[in-house]
Design a protein that fits this description.
118 residues; mainly alpha; three-stranded antiparallel beta sheet
Length: 118
Amino acid sequence: MLEPSNNNELPPIPGKRYFNIGEVSELCAVKSHVLRYWEQEFPNLKPMKRRGNRRYYQRQDVLLIRQIRDLLYMQGYTISGARHKLNGEEAEQDSSQTSQLTRQLISELEDILKLIKA
């Protein structure tokens, strides 16, 4: 998942492994309560929870939040529209990867068939 270009005004994401909700709030220019709400609305946004139900976000979560922010605030999508768009993009990526793997497998099988015939 690539970082949308409209998020250029946001600060760069540091090279940390985990971010707490306050850090993500600052990195994405979204309030903490909005992040908690988006967790309920977007099933692919699942930060890790540790002791005391503290949320710890990874880099891909931050990128996803920036993408959600862009869809909702910059492009004017509704929450259900943004959810649908994100699910569609994931399906396209999965389909592309599947077709690439299929082509690679066919090529390998053809090579094996040539070896058997020789």
